[in-house]
Amino acid sequence: MSQADVLRALDARAAGQWGLVTTAQAKLDGVQGVQLLRLERSGALESVGHGVYRLAASPPPEHLRIKVAWLRLDPGTPARDRRTDGPGSGVVSHTSACAVHGLGGRPHDPVELTVSSRRTTRDETVVLHRARTDAEDITVVDGLPVTTVPRTVVDLLEDRADAARTGTFVAEAAARGLVRVDDLAPRVAAFAGAYGLPAEASGAELLEFLCEQAGRPLPVRKAGRPAAKASGPGAASTPERKRPTIWEVAERAGVSHQTVSRFLKNDSGMKPATRARIERAVAELGYRPNLMARSMRTQRSHRITIVLPELSGFVPIPLLRGASAAAHEAGYMTDVVGLEGGESRRARSVLSLLETRQADGVLSLVPLGDLAGGQGAGQRPVVVLGEYDDNLQSRGRLADGRPAEEILRHLADQGHRRFLHVAGSQDWASARNRRAVYVEAIERLGLESYGVVDGDWSVRSGYEAARDLPADSGVTAVLAANDYVALGVLRGFQDRGVRVPEEMSVFGWDDEEFTRYFSPSISTVHINKEEVGRQSMLSLLALLRGEPEPESVVTDLFHLVPRGSSGPVSPR
């Protein structure tokens, strides 16, 4: 099949699915992976996700990441033939549904999909929820099956999404006429207790609370509060008196709503004159605190929030798994949230979570300024992990490059003397440390380095390094910056006919799940992130209980995992 024939076949496949085509669909037309790779190199195709390409002649579609993730649920079936039930089915849901509906979903959120049967994904930027979706809960937006706005709000509440963010979605949807709040209230009443309201709180009161948290208070009638019954002539036409809000009290008293909140919590440090103004405003308006304000003084949430930065395509799943397991063993549920802004803004958001009792404690994977570690910080139930920067790039223990020397020693013991290192992005401390240790250890151990290839953590950078390595380089082993780079190196050598490990050994880093199942299985470095997460959560639990902080030492943080991609030097 000529290149022109291949492009025509791909164009026909992509016509009904936003200019996108999957590798599985291409194979149905007899197009092989190497042909796709050539078209990508020529610029006719763009790889937009594992096994998904965009025709360069097609305009980039809106919500590309969501569409790519949805196509990958059933990559061999064209979009027009996909069903919303049965094997391979799935619908866009949760924050991704908000984004597709235009309700403020942020482009760097994980892609969230709801599937009808148990499934897993290795893509850490995709979250799969398992739940039943009835036909009336699904709508189609730009060719994508998406949960309706009411169902999306229910899903967010069931998933214990951030109150302020959910309130923003509700307020925006109501303002645009995408949802009737009176109709929504009965569907969400069951979640009132999860957000700190008493069990008897209505769905209307929950929606009102959520929108107030977002700074977008709903008019009472829109919140579905039933009008008081009255008797006598004309009673049916008597308008309901609007219940005053904390915002109106603040305006009448000439203070901020945060100051009114402090007053309601009996803040002893408030000036007498300010207290008197607020008391007068409360009396004049007939304001009474809502149920949430009362419950904040008497209840705990039994939830712990784990904080990530908002703009991150990387989520350290093993670390979260270890932290969540420790919390669950202690009787806590965990919520993972992404908070936008820099350290100080995130710190303010964390304080809001604690003050509104949406969380009893916070474990942050990213810095929070002076909130943890500064004067008086020990009084707050906040622990900052300290292993990542603002962008979730490794630093500290997780960025230690010393295992690179262990790899070199291990391979040298197997007879290797000349090496190549394919580095990661030098914007990352972990990549810089691995590179520095590699260079220093080569000299210290009396070995030879053909050189260091500047990579970017991608499969492509590894593939190109292997493809471009001269046949007479003398290299017999490659140290890759991570497992994805190692995968590219392996594929590059395989396409050249270089046998691994007989003629070339390859070592990766991170012990990703796929390394066990590739052929050959990939030698790598395991990082015990689960234990790091577990010990960090134990420190937070000790803080919540008023106990001394436990000693946090992971003795086996790194260890080598030799597999099928590395072995002794073969006689030439």
Descriptive overview:
This protein has 572 residues and is of the alpha/beta class. The chain is built from 20 helices and 18 strands. The chain has helices at 3-14, 23-28, 33-42, 64-73, 94-100, 149-158, 163-175, 181-188, 203-213, 246-253, 257-264, 272-285, 291-296, 317-329, 343-355, 403-413, 429-444, 459-468, 483-496, 529-545; strands at residues 20-22, 45-49, 52-55, 91-92, 111-115, 126-130, 138-141, 144-147, 303-309, 333-339, 361-364, 382-384, 418-422, 448-453, 477-480, 505-507, 524-527, 558-561. The strands form 6 sheets. Strands 10-9-11-12 form a 4-stranded parallel sheet, with helices on both faces. A 4-stranded parallel sheet has the order 14-13-15-16, with helices on both faces. Strands 1-3-2 form a 3-stranded antiparallel sheet. Residues 220-240, 291-298 and 373-378 have low confidence and may be disordered.
Q: Outline the low-pLDDT stretches.
A: 220-240, 291-298, 373-378
Q: Could you tell me the radius of gyration in angstroms?
A: 28 Å
Report the biggest beta sheet as strand number plus sense, adding barrel if it closes: 4 strands, parallel
CA-CA gap between termini: 39 Å
The order of strands across the largest sheet is 10-9-11-12
